[in-house]
Write the structure tokens for this entry.
Amino acid sequence: MHIAVPDLVSNSYFPAVAAVELGFFREHGIDMELEMVFPVGRAMQALRDGDVDFVAGPAHPTLSAFPGWEGAKLLAALSQHTFWLLVMRSDLEVAPGDVNAIRGLRIGAAPGPDAALRRLLAEAGVDPEADVSLAPVPGSDAAGVSFGIHAAQALRDGAIDGFWANAMGAEVAVQSGIGKVVLDPRRGLGPAAARDYTFAALVTTERLIEESPDMAEGAVRAVVAAQRALRADPSRAVEVGRRLFPADEAELIEDLIRRDAPYYSSEISLDAVASLNGFCRNLGLLDGDAVYEQVVASQFAHLWSEG
């Protein structure tokens, strides 16, 4: 079986990556191969077309390939809340939490994650089309490129003034001195509503659930076991990082996982789905209101407590 992630060198989807690399899928009877498929919309299309069996990514782009949640379900959360950060050049006079100060600046954001930043800006009264230059970072769509790390390099090179990406990209920029974190919705830095736009999730097709329920259950158990292991001992992330990441980023991953560990819960709450629905309606991805069972494979919810 195959699981796609839109960014391999990331803490955002790390419980799924760790479930593969630390053998938790294998322990639950699944021979799982990890694939990087960028951007996330392309990963969801691969899921729809049967090229992969699972996607570990943000929940909302599922609708880009499965309108109205027809044909796909969320199996579990990989982590809670909106998980991207806005990093700006450290020499710019942009105070933490000040959304209006980024007017007129060049911001890099990947397709899919950019939707959350666009909504955040609009709710703060900043027009994401007219008031800022918001676009993918040139070269970020090349094969094997980690968006966050690539964006940090683009910031260093002066190609952009800031970027919206995972905490790995943010940490690289901050530790080098070139960047500073301006928005971190998950930790309350920025508009409160942005905290629950979306979350990282394990996604599969209704077809797989119906035809191979044991595989779906095993996948949930594997992710829950990985979350539990990482919360108990974040240093286990290092062996995964050294196997998959560039050397510098491999040494950063333990601290990032330690920081994110409180959010490593597989539960998908009613409130999380309600917020996700509202976000997707605002993006034009959803008409009306999808009920919880349309979005979530709730027959596996009892497994979340194992974590």
Notes: The first strand starts at residue 2 and ends at 5.
